[in-house]
Structure formats: structure tokens, C-alpha cells
Amino acid sequence: MNETDRTSFSERLKTAAEAKKALMAGFRPKPSVVDPQFLERAAARKAELQQVRQTRTEEKAAKKQAVADALEAARLDAEASAAEALAHKRGVRKERKALSEADAKVKRDARYAARKSRK
């Protein structure tokens, strides 16, 4: 410390406080400059995000619909093949029944003819 300045203790404390205050002022955040187009760009980003979300939602709905259509087509195809198999099975059964009825008629006619010939 310099004797020629003849500073008192309180003056030295005051000087130290001012120096500390000046040092701390350097760490304070500076007032930021507000971009004049900030709100416009934010609105544009929001609109673009909304459009992307809308597109994704539509694509997801289209995918779901395509899957549902494919499942429905598979179900209808399975039903059609099952109905066709059932119709074929019924046709075979009717044919077999008609043949057995014809055989039964032939046997019955033969018994009738045999009975008539005995008399």
C-alpha cells in the first residue's frame, strides 16, 4: 500500500466493493437483442410442424385402412372357399344319396318282380 495516498480503511473497503461490483457486472447476462422476425418464424415452424403431423396422421390412417382391407379380403376369401367346400360336400352327399336311393329302388323293384313272378 502506498503511504502517499493516505487512504483510510473505509475508503479501501469502498474501493474493493466497487471493484468487486465491476467484476461481477462482467458475469451478468447482457440484455439480448430480440429478433424482429422471431414470432413470424415461430409461427412458420408451428404451421410446418402441424402440416407434418397431419400428413403422418393421414399416412397412419391409410396404413391402418390398408391392413383392415387386406384382413377383410382374406376373411371374405376364406368364407368363400369354406362355402365352396361345403357346397362341394353337399353335392357329393346328394349324389351319394341319389345313388343309394336308386340302388334301393332297383332292389325294391327286383323284390317286387320276384314276388310277382312267384304268384
Keywords:
mainly alpha; rod-shaped; 119 residues
Fraction in helix: over 70%
Which spans have pLDDT < 50 for at least 5 consecutive residues?
Answer: none
Largest sheet: none
Q: Span between N and C termini? A: 162 Å
Number of strands: 0
Assembly of the depicted chains: single chain
Secondary structure topology:
Blueprint (H helix, E strand, L loop, with lengths): L8 H19 L10 H81 L1
Q: How does this structure look, described?
A:
By secondary structure, the protein is mainly alpha-helical. It has a domain at 38-118. Helices cover 84% and strands 0% of the residues. The longest helix is centred in the middle third of the chain and has 81 residues, at 38-118. The mean pLDDT is 90.
Concise synopsis of the structure shown:
The chain has two helices and no strands. The protein has 119 residues and is an all-alpha fold. It has a domain at 38-118.
